[in-house]
Fold this protein.
Amino acid sequence: MAQSKTLNAANLEALGAARLAELLMAISKGNAEAQRQLRLALAGRGGAGETARAVTKQLVRIGSAKTWLNWQKIKPLLAELEVQRRAILDVVAPTDPAEAFELLWRLVGCAEGVLARSDDGSGRLSEAFQTAVRDLGTLAQRAGLPPEALANRAFQALAVDEHGVWGELVPILAPQLGTAGLLILREAVQAWQAEPLAASPGSKRQVVAWSSAGPIHADEVRSRHRKHMASLILQQVADALGDVDGFIGQFDAPARKMPAVAAAIARRLLGAGRLPEAWAAVERVDARQREQAPVEWEDARLDVLEALGRSDEAQAFRWERFTTTLSATHLHAYLRKLPDFDDVEAEQRAMAHALVFKDVHQSLEFLVTWPDLRRASELVLSRTQALDGDLYELLSPASDALDSRHPLAAMLLRRAIIDFTLGTARSSRYKHAAQHLRDCRDAAGRVEDFGSIPDHAAYERALRTAHGRKAGFWQEVDRLG
């Protein structure tokens, strides 16, 4: 009997069509989203053409709307966009992929207007449109769209893409564009890149911002945006064509010295088997920039060294990066390449280095996550005064990790958070600080020897003396018991 009440398709089907229709009418009353889904389902009974007309009607409504979209209105719009996308893919695409492509293109075309009248701080609207873009590639292939027309259409969309929703269009359409379409697109972008922007007369130039060098004009911003967009598109076209030199050509000499760019270039040269050039690419980065280089550059350099057969240098680089940054990734890779037993000694050497690393918080994070909780406890006990209690997002989980086997160290981390919270009167954190105090009280009975550190009773008395007037905190403490 209980199974008949389980909410599943089989049990709902047993209710019968009439009862389900009544329920759907009741549930959808006052729910515009549900009503639109039902109308689309009804339209689907008339075939792909009827669904296409219903979708078109809704997309026209979305694209022509003018009202501002606050955070409350974004959620229903997201649901509406997904309803239309699914109708296109599930109902129209199986029998008419060309029409489905047109509808989906139109849906993405709504992005500029929608994003211009909304605050998309979460990025959810942009992601919804980008999801629709990803579906275009398969539809283009199934519909057998002509590469020349597709290339021209892609260029027109990319050239006016102010919000980046079409950003991955080139690799998505590349299989259908083929070499011929990609070359057409490249030619169009190069012409657009070279085309001069009409500048307004000097006295009428619109100032949009100011810098230390003076005013920044709207036409300058447009020019920089066009240059940037054209370069990105040409990079993608080059990748799709397997044109390594075309990709490299999008960066001037100063840009090629930037770690991220150097890594991207080296990756492509490595893939093409051009190893000496790949090494030269990663080595263009100067010593100062290497200190702050992203992991992509480090990984590219290591892969090039390994490809060149310079494994000893690669190992030395891994160790150097670990000692400089406490990168667990580089240490794991370093240890994996050592002979048996040598890795044990090297790991102990690495842990000893982490224990005295200049940044106590970076050291704590590394030792807890490695994990080496014994040394993490030793670190906390020896460098308590250096702990920043404001870093609760690090200290709190670290205290939880240490709590069972190293309760004294866990207590000291929690005390650091409590002291900072009360010392700076962060009332919004009082509830959490009270819980930390409760955790300290619970852990106190498991500490065998406090040594020179005040026990919990002494610590709490000192807190009441120093912060007894912070009633909000003590109310939270009393509430927890």
About this structure: The chain has 28 helices and two strands. The two ends are 46 Å apart (CA to CA). The first helix runs from residue 9 to 13.
